[in-house]
Amino acid sequence: MMYYRKAIMLQSYLERISPGDTEATLSAKEAFDTQGFELSPEARAQADLKFTYVVTCQIYGKQKEQQKPEAADIAMLMQRHEALRVAFIDVVETLKEGRVHTEYYSKLVKADDNGKDKEIYSVKLPGDPKLGEGKPENQNHAIIFTRGSAVQTIDMNQDNYFEEALKMRNLLEEFYHDHGIRPPTILGVREHVFTGSVSSLASFMSNQETSFVTLGQRVLANPLKVRMHYGHPDVFDRVFHITRGGISKASRVINISEDIYAGFNSTLRQGNITHHEYIQVGKGRDVGLNQIAVFEGKVASGNGEQVLSRDIYRLGQLFDFFRMLSFYFTTVGFYFCTMLTVLTVYIFLYGKIYLALSGAGESIMEKANVLQNTALTAALNTQFLFQIGVFTAIPMILGFILEQGFLRVHRL
Question: Where do the structural domains in the chain lie, given as residue ranges?
Fold first, then answer.
């Protein structure tokens, strides 16, 4: 993610002089010379003003105290990247009147010139902050240390590309463009799953993910207006969200899928969520069969817990009829329809087995041929089983046609 800082420095260095400036002390050739831009004091100062990377690692203090290699790795990263900050929970135990008193501090540190941790902020907490789910607690703990008007959420398994980082300021301008009645509060960003080449199973999962983050979310954002936040590298209006409950909800069990509640929260408070596909962030997934099943199970169970939340209830009360139906299918409705599809396949297969073993299928088929009952003949065809599977893959196929062209998809 440090490509953002590098991109800002390069853009600042190139724009330090206008090519048409007649009073410029640099020639046009020198103005476009990018050699040594990372050493420019002006470019570095501009990058420091525009960008800070906050990594939230609640157990960094404990790891450092125990001299674990993970703490040494984090310290090395802070030394290499001067814009990197680490937020963690510091647990301090003191002995008062014969009793051990435990105090909790939320701290933000960076590396100083000597490579040591330099404390920037220290906030005393009323108690142990780890009350709910781990990831949202981590996010809520660190968001107070962010600065600026926009925050992009990045997971540990996400990566970036320099050419994509150059587009970030174009994306931030979307906050000031017209996207409907209300200004955007979450700018949706697509993901590129770069682990799709590991195996055929990984490739299929990557393709399904690609269809969701492109064609699927494009339609959810406009015209359906029911796109939420799905753990992708979306950019949040920081002032809007930090004054309205943050970007995550961390209650145990019910907030298993914590990311989507940021979208619920934004929509309930008259926010506007958009989707933009000219910029993307890489993502790596564990694409083993077991891990895919575990991930799908987590998403499905989290979706079931969402139905019990008051956020869903309030959205259902406030949405109009058509938007409510769209929202239903993007949450629990999708899994309900999938369940019906799976049950239908089971019933169809057991019915075919019964007809085959009992001999009733052959007699019914002969009767249908004699009476020329084409409807009954079509109903007995097994091809319906395969048509159901192909039907679920239609969004992926259409997405590939739009992204890569019909001829390349035909070769695949």
Answer: 53-145, 150-333, 335-410
Closest CA to 286 of 183, 156, 153: 156
Distance CA 49, CA 183 (A): 25
Rounded to 5 degrees, φ, ψ at 119 are -75, 130
Mind listing the pLDDT tens digit for each residue in 31-64? 566 677 888 888 889 998 999 999 998 889 888 8
User: Is 50 exceeded by the pLDDT of residue 285?
Assistant: yes
Peptide bond into 223 cis (omega under 30): yes
| 307: region left, alpha or beta (phi > 0 left; psi from -120 to 50 alpha) | alpha
Q: How many CB atoms sit inside 10 A of residue 137's CB? A: 20
Integer Cα distance of 15 and 302 in angstroms:
47
Q: Is 2 exposed, middle or buried (0-12, 13-18, 19+ CB in 10 A)?
A: middle
> Cα(130)–Cα(134) distance, rounded to whole angstroms?
7
Cα-trace Rg, the chain? 27
Measured in degrees and rounded to the nearest 5, phi and psi for residue 350 equal -65, -35
Residue 236 and residue 185: Cα distance in Å, rounded?
6
Nearest to 111 by CA among 151, 159, 71: 71
